[in-house]
Design goal:
This protein is mainly beta. It has one domain (2-337): YVTN repeat-like/Quinoprotein amine dehydrogenase (Methylamine Dehydrogenase, Chain H). Helix content is 3%, strand content 46%. The strands form seven sheets. A five-stranded mixed β-sheet has the order 1-26-25-24-23, with no helix packed on it. The protein has a four-stranded antiparallel β-sheet with strand order 2-29-28-27, with no helix packed on it. Strands 3-4-5-6 form a four-stranded antiparallel β-sheet, with no helix packed on it. A hairpin with a 1-residue loop joins β4 (59-63) and β5. The longest helix has 7 residues, at 8-14. The model is unreliable at 1-28 (pLDDT under 50).
Length: 339
Amino acid sequence: MLQERANYFQALSLLIVFLSFASCTKDVIAPKIITGSWTSTGFTSNYKAYILGTNDSSIFVSSGLLYRTSDNGNHWTTLYDPNNSLNGQCFCALGNNIYLGFVDGIFMSVDNGNNWNLIGSNLGGTINSLTAKGGTIYAGTLCGVHATENNASWTNLYAGFPPSTSSYPYLGVESLIIKDTNLYAGTIGLYSFDEQNLTWAPASNGLPSDWIMSLAVVGNSLIAGTMSHGVYISNDNGANWTEINNGLPQNGSGYYQISSITTFNNYIFVILQGRIYLSTNNGNNWSLVSGFPTTNSIQTSVLVKDNILFCGGGNIIDPNQYHYQITGQIWNCPLSSLH
C-alpha cells in the first residue's frame, strides 16, 4: 500500500513537521509563506488520503480504500473493491478507461470506477507509476517498464535499461511522464525511450546519481523531483538539467524527498516533509503553502481541477507517539486565493 511504500526517512521527517527551519542547515533561508482559503471537503477516513488523479469528470482518492467525487468534493463514493485491497498506488486515464496500479497488478474500469477488472499481474513487483500515450499504457514497476496496447498482453521494455543488483534484473521505476511524444522513466537517473528502436538512453546530464521520485511538465520544461537532492529542471527535453531549490528546506545531508510534483499552467507544486511548496517562476523561488484549518495536519498530494486546488493528507491525532494515528482529509481552496 502507499503507506508501506513510504521509506524510513520519510517517516522520520513527518515526526518533525512542526519544527521550525532551525533544523535545516544554517545557509538555508526560510521560504516565503503564502496562505490559501482552505476548507475541508468533508472527506474523512482512518488513513492518510492520497489524491491519485482525475479523468476530468471525477477525482479519485486512495485512503485505505478507493474513493471518488464527481462534484469537487461535496459528496464522496466508496468504490467497488473486489479484494478488500483496492488501495491504489498510481492512476491514469485514457479515453473512457481509467487504470489503477497497486502492489502487484493493474485494474481497469470502463464505468468511472464502479467496477474493476484485473488486466495485468506479475509485471515486476509493485506498480509505482502509470502513464498513457495513444492506445498504449505504460507501467513503471520494481523491475523496469512494461507496456500494453489496447489492454492486450504486456511487453517488457528492458532494452537499454540499467541493471539492478537486487532480486530483480533491472532497476525499479518510481516515475513516468510523457512530454510531447517522448516517454521518460525516473529510476536512479532519468532515461528516455526511443520508440522506433524500442530502447532506453540516459537523459541525466546535470542530475545527481539519485532516485527520480516524481516527474512533471510545466510549459516546455521537464521537472524532476529526487530522493535527496531536491528539484531539477530541463529546458531541452532532458538533455541538460539545473538545480532549482531556492527556498526548499534541507536536512543534515541534503534535501528532503520530493514525493510528488503537480503542475497547472505556471504553478508547480511539490510535496516534501509533509508540506506543500509552490513556485510560479519555473522553480527560481519556492513558497510554503499554509492556511490549513488545523495546524497538526500533513499534506501528501495535490491536484487542480476547475481552478480549485485540492489537497490530500490528514490530521495527526497524537504527534507525540512514534506510530501516531492520522485521520484522512481532503481540503480545497480556490487557486486564486493563494497569496
